Amino acid sequence: MEEQQAPERFTVSVGMGAGLVRISVAGELDQGFATLLERVATEAWAVASASGLVLDLRGLTFCDSRCVGVLLLLLRQSREQKAALVVAGVPQRLERILTMTGLRAMFRVEPSLEAAIEVVRAWRESQGSPDRSEKNSP
Questions:
Q1: Residue 114: its pLDDT value, please?
Q2: Domain 2-134 belongs to what architecture?
Q3: I need a surface site. Which of 7, 37, 88, 93 has the fewest CB within 10 A?
């Protein structure tokens, strides 16, 4: 597992295995750290032949509009990879932002990391489409 830190305010951890990529974040995801998360996610997609990505946001303490941009990038990447994207532990503030912008329906959100991993595994076993708009996604 790879971990990259920006000075004490933001941490990104990546785990790969069992057909999925898990990215966990902790701290403040703002304009300054969004690029780090984008780079890590892009690199993870490049090296893993994963059927899904679980984004664990349980440790996220702050997010601004740039955070929403990162989520949309990950959604686009998952569709390009024909892989599932499941977000775990969305903080209340981000949930509110996604709902107010009308973006909430685009994401599969689970309350826990374990539930998110199970959704990706079930999707992989069912051979469904990761595209939520096609109604076959997790």
A1: 95
A2: 2-Layer Sandwich (3.30)
A3: 7
Write the burial class of residue 8 (CB in 10 Å: 0-12 exposed, 13-18 middle, 19+ buried).
exposed
Which parts of the chain register pLDDT below 50?
Answer: 6-7, 128-136
Buried b (16+ CB within 10 A) or exposed e, 88-125: bbbbeebeebbeeeeeeeebbbbeebeebbebbbebbe
Of the CA atoms within 13 Å of residue 7, those in its CB half-sphere come to: 1
Q: Which pLDDT score, from 0 to 100, does residue 50 have?
A: 73
Cα separations (Å) of 23 from 13, 44, 135?
A: 6, 9, 24
What is the Cα–Cα distance from 27 to 56, expressed in whole angstroms? 12
Find the helix packing angle between 31-47 and 65-80, rounded to 10°: 10
Place of tokens 């686009």: 76
Length of the chain: 138
- Closest by Cα among 118, 121, 60 to 91: 60
- Position 91 scores a pLDDT of 95
